[in-house]
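I hope you will forgive my troubling you with a question about protein structure. I should value your view on which stretches of the chain appear to form regular backbone elements. Here, with my thanks, is the record as I have it:
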Amino acid sequence: MRATLTIVTLLCTSLSQAAWAPGAFAAEGPKKSTPSKKPKRQVIFTGSAVAASRLRADPLPRPSGHLELYSQNFKGETISVDLYNEDGSFNEASLDELYHLWRCRRTGTEKPINPHLFELLSLVYDRFQKPVELVSGFRNQERMSSYHFLGSAADIRVRGVSDRELHDFVMSLDTGEMGFGRYPRAGFIHIDVRPTSYRWIDRSPPSEDMGHPKKAKKRNA
């Protein structure tokens, strides 16, 4: 029995010394480190043309023509107008008031605005029965392709109405000639009148360059 214990002890000692001998693990090679996953880069701008199947098929209802607005840019300046005369034509005095409210925040420049934009906003007012906040109207800017510069765009919100509810209602007005943009970080939506419908989401902070695809910045060599 003692002889057996002695043999087992010698064997364990021998294996232990071999395990800790220099180069004992050389055959395994260095352990490979698992590469860390890079955080996904958030897409700032996504947009696309609108398929005919996603457009409103029914004609738009005729708006009441009543419109109450206040301007974020001009210390809460407010107006309450009726777009139409009794015969259904546009009331020029009301349009002049709206052009003035739409003036450029930086330069004070006024420009005639596409009256169909006001009809869309009147439908928004009819639906929610609350003043529409004008975040941005006409912009006298370098980007002349902007619908803000062309005089057919508005950035808006309605106090007390969720972004989702306002977003869903405005999209329901699109019969095929409307631009619609969502700005989650800036907290408003964009509406414009254009030849063919286009929709987008822009997650960048507020700036006059919002609503346009972002180009990647070139890195210096």
Q: What stands out?
A: The longest helix spans residues 2-19. DSSP finds five helices and eight strands in the chain. The two ends are 78 Å apart (CA to CA).
